[in-house]
Amino acid sequence: MTFAELLPDIRLLPATDRLRLIQILANELADEQCSKRQLLPESAEIWSPYDSHSAAGVLSNMLDDTSTPK
């Protein structure tokens, strides 16, 4: 059954039933979108402190500056 065939019957429904139909369809679409997102591989850049020697030097200098009395 096509949308064009359904539309006249949908228009005959009371307003509360049409709103319920909208809710059902919106929920189904949201569920489909969530399922599709879970299937897609996502890549994210993850920062790691390993091999970040320059960052360690900056932190060490900051600690030295704050630990010396002024």
Name the beta content range.
under 5%
Low-confidence stretches: none
Q: Average pLDDT across residues?
A: 84
What is the subunit organization of this protein?
A: single chain
Helix content: over 70%
Give the ordered list of helices and strands. HHH
Q: How large is the radius of gyration?
A: 29 Å
Query: What distance separates the N and C termini?
Result: 82 Å
Count of domain modules: 1
Structural class computed from helices and strand pairing: mainly alpha
Largest sheet: none
- Counted by DSSP, the helix tally is 3
Give the strand tally.
Answer: 0
What is the 3D shape?
Answer: rod-shaped
Structural features, described:
The model has no long low-confidence stretch (mean pLDDT 84). Helices cover 71% and strands 0% of the residues. The radius of gyration is 29 Å and the shape is rod-shaped. It is mainly alpha-helical. The chain is built from three helices and no strands. It has one domain. It starts with a helix and ends with a helix.
Feature tags:
3 helices, 70 residues, rod-shaped, Addiction module component, mainly alpha
